[in-house]
Amino acid sequence: MAMHTTSQTRPATPPLSKLKEEMCDIGRRIYAKGFAAGNDGNISFRLGPNEVLCTPTQISKGFMKPADLCIVDMEGNQLAGQRKRSSEVLLHLTIMKERPDVKSVVHCHPPHATAFAVAREPIPQCVLPEVEVFLGDVPITRYETPGGQKFADTVKPFVQRANVVILANHGTVSFGESIERAYWWTEILDAYCRILMLAKDLGRVTHLTKDQTKELLDLKAQWGFTDPRLSDELANCDICGNDVFRSSWSETGVQRKAFDAPPAMAGSAAAGGQPDQEALVKAVTEQVCRQLGITTS
Length: 297
Fold this sequence. Notes:
Blueprint: H1 16-32, E1 42-48, E2 51-54, E3 70-72, E4 78-80, H2 89-98, E5 104-108, H3 111-119, H4 129-134, H5 149-153, E6 164-167, E7 171-176, H6 179-202, H7 210-222, H8 249-252, H9 277-292
Antiparallel strand pairs: 1-2, 1-5, 2-3, 3-4, 5-7, 6-7
Helix pairs in contact: 3-6
């Protein structure tokens, strides 16, 4: 969910040497968390109108040094650095072009979130307060071979309304006004995906109510963050039903399989005479099974 701050004040860009140290530090954290095996992942920071600091190709993010980093222009042409820039920097530049407020982009392969990317399973909403406030609805892109502009363009439908995106069969990309903030969204998402898997192993995922979720969205607004679910466009949608990005599912191959749809919330379109199709199919199936004496899990 897009989390553009409402304040017009933007922090000053830190000195280049400090940014390089911070980028290496975030690389170590990504590697230590198991989010980047081998030379996986890449990080960037926009230095100015036409200069972007980025990580190089073919290097472990856990062992980078400031001298290893590159500078490219907004078209991906390398301007500085002894090592060659990452081919996936085009993904970072596309996000920065679409979102001028974004200063930093982090791409990696956190295992639990990437499992959702491989399964094309939508991330359930209205479960964990921190996720509602900091992430919201998380989209999944269509698949393209990584490295080229076609791959980079897969995020375009989502970047205006999200700060973290799951890349189908690949990993995640998150972005924000600082390197650390961009990284935070990935760490929060992977922790949440792990919690969902553990809860499913225990037997069920319990959803928050519409009122409880609305309180969290109001808190989000008080902190200066936006959320599409508070817009007039989605006023009559199911607040917990992945309505923000559900229209993209047919193109991206996303489908609920592992996790049930949340119960329809009172006052939503799904609860007001237009029932959620998944919930309806499930209810009919359970009724037929009961009549046949079949136990459903």
